Amino acid sequence: KAGVTQTPRYLIKTRGQQVTLSCSPISGHRSVSWYQQTPGQGLQFLFEYFSETQRNKGNFPGRFSGRQFSNSRSEMNVSTLELGDSALYLCASSLTGEAYNEQFFGPGTRLTVL
Amino acid sequence: DAKTTQPPSMDCAEGRAANLPCNHSTISGNEYVYWYRQIHSQGPQYIIHGLKNNETNEMASLIITEDRKSSTLILPHATLRDTAVYYCIVRGASGSARQLTFGSGTQLTVLP
Fold first, then answer.
1. β-sheet bridge partners, residue A59
2. Which chain A positions have a beta carbon within 8 Å of B93's beta carbon?
3. pLDDT (tens digit per residue) in A65-91
4. Pair A33, A45: CB distance under 8 Å
């Protein structure tokens, strides 16, 4: 079974631009969560989608948004990029997102904002 | 905030068992203990999880104390490829508590 895939793997943008990252979950998984990892803040939860609906949201500004499609694939968007948005963005998929179901992470998208 | 306490670093000799402790003294009855590891900024890798009973899979064993206030992850025969940061996470059963909250983890270094 294929794992979680994320595209692109690396991205370089400049301040003020916007970016869209994509995540394809494991086949059959309906929950997709997004995390941001930076050296200073560690791994932080951004949001979770289940059945095309945002189910939970972390403490990030409105510049960070996401969506999920009917095939469970998910995208996240960051608008008006800031230098501090440089990070590894990780996507994790789970069968249902319940606590007893494991979350499996993708390899991440490394975003650099110049 | 992370609800777990782990030592910042540990060493283990190759071929020996690596025992990684985790304290979660405020864990609630319906909260799970999860372990992940991360190797050099790759995506975190799921290892094992449990609620009350000890668990074992092909990667590791999870020993949870009877009062559930602490647990130990055991890698039975550590190899150099097990060098990574290991995260112990308490995961709640509902709402935002279901999301994974990563702390600082334990840097495990397997020595040849």
1. none
2. 98-99
3. 999 999 999 999 999 999 999 999 999
4. yes
With CB atoms and an 8 Å threshold, state whether A100 touches B44.
no
Task: For residue range A4-34, list pLDDT tens digits in order.
Answer: 999 999 999 999 999 999 999 999 999 999 9
**E-state strands within A2-113:** 5-7, 10-13, 19-24, 31-38, 42-50, 53-57, 64-68, 74-78, 87-94, 104-105, 109-113
Q: What is the pLDDT of residue A83?
A: 97
Flag if A56 and B95 touch (Cβ within 8 Å).
yes
- Residue A74, token pair as written in the block: 């998910």
CA angle B19, B21, B22 (to 5 degrees): 150
